[in-house]
């Protein structure tokens, strides 16, 4: 019998192409193409190339070295920090990993409702007549219902999420082939003019451009989830980096070709304001019209995506919370949060999640009066908050680089301590930089100054409050112990 953590040759069966495919399915999604095209148009193709070279490739290779070095650590980033620094800092890394999911969970009900609307009505306008208050109440009801479902300890959701994710992935690849082939059909022309001109793909490197980079970072982040596979790779020092290079190529191809497909369907010079919210569905609907198959593609994508969104919502309520509460004692986390119900669920942790997510769902609706604007704001908030967990990957790599001689690794991205530390520092600073600039609202100030200032305030206050709560928890824990 092979024991967990055994790194014998017999267990090292993954090849470079296996690693690349696992990582690709973890990192990439069709909405990455839609959301970034919505913000930058066709010029996003150049941005993809830049972000892959200066950020994504070193990021994934750092993850490879960390995962290979700490192969027996099951807590991910917090375990890496624990090994290279202090238990307190490891707790804070785990807190960050959990708390950044709060805005993510707040938007999932929106995605569920929109996906169902497209699948069953053939349009994204069903909820457009609702006030933001009513829409937010519906989202809160959806969230609370599925949080209740998650509290029952459903064990088959991982399988459902995997199948739905695979179906959505297949639809994303199908989109690329159909969109690129569409101009060769009779009576179909590219919506964006001058697609053969280099100028079409040159970004305007102004302040507004840099405020959109956080969405690109959000799109390529998350490869730390594949760290456990490093030591299951045959000849990890050679095949794992090769797998990461193939991953970068796959992501690059899908990002670039997918963005060209979007430019064929949507005019880059006149991007619809609701493209983030409805773009994926509208794209499949238009492809169905091009190929004379009606709404078949759109309905298929809507159904698979709605199932995937529901499964992701339930899994994301439970999994990050387990990482936080299972890995730390009552020195940092109040003992009351570790209470388990009969299904083995951290029930009080669920309640804390429900309160924070509920506030984030309802409070913005007071000042944001347009559903499309509310959706776009919450998506942009995710691009500000979610990358904060990537910062700990780079902190861990900097700490590892300082103490490289103390740890053994089958695979090393960088062997020089100074270069390794500088690369980790670069990725840390770049991530922090785009997160701060991402706080600038993406709406016109002159059109609605009140909403602009409200969004700016929420973008600044939300991450500060969420992170600050992590400082308060150990104080409560110590007080409870007394």
UniProtKB/TrEMBL annotation:
UniProt protein name: Amino acid transport protein
Q: Which GO terms describe its molecular function?
A: transmembrane transporter activity
Q: Which GO terms describe its cellular component?
A: plasma membrane
Ordered alphabetically, the record's keywords are: Cell membrane, Membrane, Transmembrane, Transmembrane helix, Transport
- InterPro entries attached to this UniProt entry: AA/rel_permease1, APC_superfamily
Q: Which domain of life is it from?
A: Bacteria
Q: Determine if 4Fe-4S is one of this entry's keywords.
A: no
Q: Where in the cell is it found?
A: Cell membrane
Species in which this protein is naturally found: Pediococcus cellicola
For whether the record's keyword set contains Transport, the answer is: yes
Locate the transmembrane regions by residue number. 45-67, 88-106, 126-150, 157-181, 201-221, 242-266, 307-325, 345-368, 374-400, 421-440, 452-477
Bilayer topology reads: Multi-pass membrane protein
């Amino acid at each position: 019998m092979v024991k967990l953590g055994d790194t014998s040759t017999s267990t090292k069966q993954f090849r470079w192409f296996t690693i690349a495919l696992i990582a690709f399915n973890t990192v990439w999604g069709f909405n990455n193409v839609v959301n970034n095209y919505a913000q930058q148009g066709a010029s996003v193709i150049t941005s993809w190339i830049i972000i892959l070279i200066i950020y994504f490739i070193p990021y994934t290779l750092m993850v490879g070295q960390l995962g290979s070095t700490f192969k027996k650590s099951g807590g991910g980033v917090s375990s890496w920090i624990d090994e290279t620094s202090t238990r307190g800092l490891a707790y804070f890394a785990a807190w960050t990993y959990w708390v950044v999911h709060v805005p993510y969970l707040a938007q999932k009900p929106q995605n569920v409702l929109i996906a169902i609307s497209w699948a069953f009505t053939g349009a994204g306008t069903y909820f457009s007549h609702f006030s933001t208050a009513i829409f937010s109440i519906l989202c809160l009801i959806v969230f609370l219902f599925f949080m209740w479902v998650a509290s029952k300890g459903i064990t088959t959701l991982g399988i459902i999420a995997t199948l739905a994710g695979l179906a959505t992935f297949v639809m994303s690849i199908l989109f690329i082939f159909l969109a690129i082939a569409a101009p060769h059909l009779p009576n179909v022309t590219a919506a964006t003019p001058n697609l053969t001109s280099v100028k079409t793909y040159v970004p305007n490197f102004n302040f507004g451009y840099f405020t959109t980079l956080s969405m690109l970072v959000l799109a390529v982040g998350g490869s730390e989830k594949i760290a456990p596979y490093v030591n299951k790779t045959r000849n990890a020092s050679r095949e794992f980096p090769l797998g990461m290079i193939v991953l970068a190529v796959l992501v690059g191809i899908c990002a670039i070709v997918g963005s060209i497909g979007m430019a064929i369907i949507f005019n880059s010079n006149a991007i619809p304001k609701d493209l983030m919210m409805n773009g994926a569905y509208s794209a499949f609907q238009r492809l169905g019209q091009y190929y004379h198959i009606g709404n078949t593609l759109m309905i298929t994508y809507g159904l698979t995506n709605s199932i995937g969104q529901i499964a992701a919502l339930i899994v994301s309520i439970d999994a990050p919370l387990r990482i936080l509460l299972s890995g730390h004692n009552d020195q940092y986390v109040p003992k009351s949060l570790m209470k388990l119900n009969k299904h083995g669920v951290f029930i009080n942790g669920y309640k804390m999640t429900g309160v924070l997510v509920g506030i984030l769902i309802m409070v913005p609706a007071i000042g944001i009066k347009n559903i499309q604007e509310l959706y776009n704001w919450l998506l942009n908030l995710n691009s500000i908050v979610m990358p904060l967990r990537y910062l700990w990957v780079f902190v861990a790599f900097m700490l590892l680089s300082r103490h490289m001689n103390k740890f053994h690794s089958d695979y090393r991205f960088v062997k020089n301590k100074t270069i390794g530390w500088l690369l980790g520092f670069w990725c840390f600073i770049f991530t922090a930089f785009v997160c701060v600039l991402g706080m600038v609202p993406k709406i016109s100030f002159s059109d609605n100054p009140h909403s602009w200032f409200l969004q700016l305030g929420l973008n600044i206050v939300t991450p500060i409050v969420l992170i600050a709560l992590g400082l308060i928890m150990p104080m409560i824990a110590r007080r409870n112990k007394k």
